[in-house]
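Pipeline run #58 for the internal structure catalog. This entry was flagged by the ingest filter as a single-chain record with no existing model, so it goes straight to prediction. Upstream metadata was stripped on purpose; only the residue string is passed forward. Reviewer on rotation: M.T. Logging verbosity set to normal.
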Amino acid sequence: MKRIILCVFLLLLTTGCTAEYNLTIDDLENFTYEETGYIKTSNLEEISTIYNSEWPTTAYKDADYDSEAPTRFPDEEYYEVESSKIGEIYQVKYHYTFPSERFDDSTGVHTGFYDFKKTVDEEANTTTLDTGKFYYEKFPDLEKLTVNLTVNNSVVSHNADEVNGNVYTWVFTPENFSTARLTLTYQNKETNEEEDQTRFLIGTILFLGFMIFILVASFLNKKKKSQK
């Protein structure tokens, strides 16, 4: 049976668990969004069905995915999924590195934040991430959601709860689920035209500086000779 919503991810967030979402944004050199999520619970039975599940990275893009399919679709990319037990806590980790232009369709961020948008402002040369509201009604047993964004670009504005260097953190609990929303705007890499202008300006300044040095040195040399 085909489903628009990936049941596996919904199950992850409705089992009395905690979730941590980590994203590293590099739109300067590698132009990637590296996404890593952790789901933790003390009840293995509640999450045992997801251990061997296949998770499409863009499950919300089309209505073409069967969450219980035993095999992968040949033309679809999937998360790397690892399961482990740490003490009395069972943990599932999922990971995938998106090319920057494809992150709009990420399953991880669209799970719960169904209205997520990534908007590029060409005039201001910025990119804005806006999750929209958190559909907490879908996840009545979620106890805590922590979001950590590591941003290599220069951040223009944000509404993070805490900032540590270039790591921006939001912590959501049942007390603030209804108002949970993440927004962050960062500066894009300079365009080639801007880079060329900068290099030209630097080159011009260096050239003028060199010419001034030659003229001053020549003037001082002539003055020294005239005084002999």
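catalog note: Residues 192-226 form the longest helix (35 residues).
catalog note: The helical segments are 7-12, 44-47, 107-110, 192-226.
status: ready for reviewer M.T.
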